[in-house]
């Protein structure tokens, strides 16, 4: 017979919470860095958005969306919304990469997978009941 340890569940829950926060912080930092490059008009970003053909205004909109969504991701009540919006940004990056940019896709897939995990971990209670 195995002994039941009541603290084991609490330790696992604490580690899950710590890993969830670490994931959200790393994602927020990654998107804030990308937003800084866009909003500070780094030549690489200017060239990419020229090549995409949606104009430089779209670069500013994308950068502002990344900043706002990163903040939402770090706020517990809005983390799910932040993750979902950033998944939309990743979808746009995916379309740009397979279209006019012809770039590598690995970072889009990795960020998308990590954002999907963050969205799953922070999904609201009404979605938890549905599944």
The largest sheet, given as strand count, sense and whether it forms a barrel, is: none
Give me the strand/helix succession. HHHHHH
Helix content: over 70%
Basic shape: elongated
Mean pLDDT: 91
Q: Which secondary-structure class do the elements indicate?
A: mainly alpha
Number of domains: 1
The total count of strands amounts to 0
Distance between the termini: 34 Å
CA radius of gyration: 18 Å
Task: List the uncertain runs.
Answer: none
Output the number of helix runs: 6
Strand content: under 5%
Question: What report would you give on this structure?
Answer:
With 131 residues, this protein is mainly alpha-helical. The protein has one domain (6-130). It has 6 helices and no strands. The protein has helices at 6-39, 43-52, 56-74, 79-98, 106-121, 125-130. The longest helix has 34 residues, at 6-39. The radius of gyration is 18 Å and the shape is elongated. It starts with 5 loop residues before the first helix and ends with a helix. The model has no long low-confidence stretch (mean pLDDT 91).
């Amino acid at each position: 017979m195995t002994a039941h340890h009541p603290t084991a569940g609490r330790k696992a829950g604490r580690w899950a919470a710590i890993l969830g926060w670490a994931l959200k912080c790393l994602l927020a930092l990654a998107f804030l860095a990308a937003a800084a490059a866009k909003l500070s008009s780094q030549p690489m970003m200017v060239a990419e958005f020229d090549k995409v053909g949606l104009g430089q205004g779209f670069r500013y909109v994308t950068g502002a969306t990344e900043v706002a969504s990163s903040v939402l991701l770090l706020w517990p009540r809005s983390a799910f919304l932040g993750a979902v919006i950033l998944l939309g940004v990743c979808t746009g990056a995916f379309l740009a990469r397979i279209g006019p940019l012809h770039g590598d896709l690995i970072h889009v897939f990795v960020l998308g997978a990590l954002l999907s995990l963050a969205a799953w971990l922070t999904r609201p209670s009404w979605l938890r009941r549905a599944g």
